[in-house]
Amino acid sequence: MRIGRAAGVTDTGRRRLRNEDAFICEPPLFAVADGMGGARAGEVAARLAAGVLEEAGVETKGEQGVTAMIIEANRRIWERALADPATAGMGTTVTAALVDTDSGAVAIGHVGDSRAYLLRAGSLEQLTTDHSLVAELVSSGVLTPEEAERHPQRSAITRALGTEPEVDVEVFTITGEPGDLYLICSDGLPTMLADSAVAAALEAADRDPAVAAEALVAAANRQGGEDNITVVLFELAEGEPPAHEPAAIVPEPVVDDPVPQERELEPEPEVSPASLSRHGAGAGGRLAALAFIVAAVVIAGLVLYWGISK
Ligand SMILES: [Mn+2]
Question: Which CATH number fits domain 2-238: 3.60.40.10, 3.40.50.2000, 3.40.50.11540, 3.30.70.100?
Answer without folding.
Answer: 3.60.40.10
